[in-house]
Amino acid sequence: MSSTTPRSSGRPLALVTGASAGIGYELARLFARHGYDLVATGRSGNIHQAAAAFEKDGAQVIPVQADLADYDGVEAVWQAVHATGRPLAAAVLNAGRSIAGSFLDTDLDDELGLIALNVTSVVHLAKRVARHMAANRSGRILITSSLSATLPTPYETVYGPSRAFTRMFALALREELKGHGVSVTTLLPGATDSDFHARAGMGNTAFGAGMKKNSRAQVARQGFKAMLAGRAQVVGGDSATKLTYVKHHILPETRKAARHARMAKPRP
Ligand SMILES: NC(=O)c1ccc[n+]([C@@H]2O[C@H](COP(=O)([O-])OP(=O)(O)OC[C@H]3O[C@@H](n4cnc5c(N)ncnc54)[C@H](OP(=O)(O)O)[C@@H]3O)[C@@H](O)[C@H]2O)c1
After folding, report:
1. CB atoms within 10 A of CB 102
2. Which domains, from first to last, does the chain contain?
3. Which of 41, 118, 157, 182 meets the CB 3.0–4.6 Å disulfide criterion with 177?
4. How far is the CA of 2 from the centre of ligand 1 (A)?
């Protein structure tokens, strides 16, 4: 875990987790370009290069390298925010990952680590962020879930349920915080062009290199805009992705499960 000394400025402050890559990197860049300073987090040392890029866009950035699957890692992120002494105007709880493969073969500790990141860290950080923003009677929270929250996800057996939790948690929190001056927006990206599928070990599936995916920059823009507008949720991606979301309301769970299994099952 590491962070740099906070500095003060007249700009609003935003927290973005998973800002070292993918959708989170693009979101952090949007905040920088829209006049925010940042506490930007990543698991790897890449967060330091990312921070340098956001600074070129005019932001003061506090990079925090921390494992959010770890309780102390989440606390380190919150301490970096707290140490600024500044009100948090926006918080994006975005870091997350998947694990591909048959549940009979995947590693239990790895899956418990996924739950620690995708579920536990979101609740943990949201507790700190929500209380802070409610006390200030101001703030915007964006929580990255997934289109996978709307179906069973065989061969990513634990991932879809983890994002379903995130989605319902965000929508519940939104309702509770309505009277406190704080908005909560859920981002539901469809398949997006980032390192996500490769890191999950999905290279040998329909989600591998050949698949047409949504632009991470577009998904980030949609999330950013929805968050600023205080919307409940937004589907991230093109019109086909948005249509899939609508279809998922009427298709039986069993049919969606069979379709996802065909796409996510490793090819022989
Ligand atoms: N890409 C998609 O198709 C897709 C679709 C729907 C939803 N999503 C959701 O979008 C979010 C972002 O995914 P992405 O596509 O941008 O993936 P990505 O390119 O793999 O980026 C993931 C980010 O999360 C960070 N991270 C991973 N494990 C972490 C840990 N244990 N502790 C702290 N940070 C950690 C990574 O840090 P390092 O890079 O420094 O390791 C990176 O910044 C995830 O929550 C994912 O569930 C993605």
Report:
1. 11
2. 13-264 (3.40.50.720)
3. 182
4. 19
